[in-house]
Specification:
By secondary structure, the protein is mainly alpha-helical. Helix 1 crosses helix 5 and helix 4 runs antiparallel to helix 5.
Amino acid sequence: MISMETKEQPKIHGLFGQNAIPVLDECLTVLKQRGSEYSDTWLLCQWFTMKAVAKSLGLELTQDQARKLTAAAFVDMKYYRLAGGYKEDSLVDLINYAANLIGEQK
């Protein structure tokens, strides 16, 4: 795994890697910035609305299930924002939201 925290970047061969690494660094910068701005809302949130809607559909969601479904919904939302046109910030957010979804599924 490539650590994005190191001062020295590993030698990346090929244009794909040369394009991707700076964007992944930007993703990490956004995560750090928003983490300090928002506190740990992902951990602390109770997902009341998600659970209430699920209950109205006859489903009972645990905290973990609500968090996983919310992660998936956020990825869908971020992806669909591209329907309004290319916006770099939406794609950077999409990478972070997708990474969070993968983490939730582990």
